[in-house]
Specification:
Strand content: under 5%
Helix content: over 70%
Structural class: mainly alpha
Distance between the termini: 16 Å
Shape: globular
Mean pLDDT: 86
Radius of gyration: 21 Å
Keywords: Membrane, Transmembrane, Transmembrane helix
Low-confidence stretches: 298-310
Amino acid sequence: MTIRNVGAGHGWTWLVQAVNVGRGNPRAVYGAIAIVSLLALLPSLVQVVMQTAFGFDAQTQLAVIGATSLVSILVYPLLIGGVLRVIDAVERGRPARAADVFRTFSAEGGAGRLVGFGVLMGALYILTFYALVSLFGEGVPEWYLEVMTLSQEMGNAGASPATPPELPMPPAGIGLLMALGLMFGIYYATVYAIGLGQVALGGRRVTAALRDGLVGALRNVLPVMVVAAIAMAGVFALMLVFGILVVMITVVASLVHPALAGVLLLPLYLALLLVLYIVMFGVMYAMWRDICAPPGDEAGTPPMSGQIEL
């Protein structure tokens, strides 16, 4: 398996190709991505409902977040792998439907390898996070727990108090910790994109796909930094426009009825979420194809066993 080095300009090319992804069959690609984007909201919805219903303390709330994150580690690789296959089928001119995103949930669709890769990456995330906090985050866990406790107390109090409690100052080393977290976050996101593409589309085993992702991300630092910088600037501009629209809609809708703002903002929020997911999955596919896919390979994806092969 050849891992290619590409130029820095590919970072911009990946974004352009991501915006145009699915043009051959938008119903299949956008439909599949819409399904995944809606399912991605479920963990947050579960957390909000459980917190509202049971009023968990900060430590229990963290446990719930951990449990939903664990479920996400197991399920998301299946959904993302399904989206990548739908995109790949459309790009190769093969028939595809939005419901094909669920084909990865079967043993014949390679569920074992996709879940195995997700678990391996999840373990890598956790180990790296633990190492960073242990080395550079002295006092950060206690500070975060204290902030969560105060926020929960304010939420349970109902109306805002006349003098809200002062939030504790963050520890001195939190800036370095956040910088390192961002750096590793970008690197691991690239590893995940390449590695999962190798499992879903390249038929690679779990450890081989992880190795391809680690090497491919290191060899292509420049285009990755370009796409990350442009993406962050674009997201900032998009959020700024979105925030202005939210304020305008809220002010106008409140003149009619307070609940009208929520009704009008929900479709806008879902549309924004869909756009972000389309670009994200489009970049993932373009990145994998340029770095790993055999040049001119028009054959279908290799058959995959449902077992986790290491």
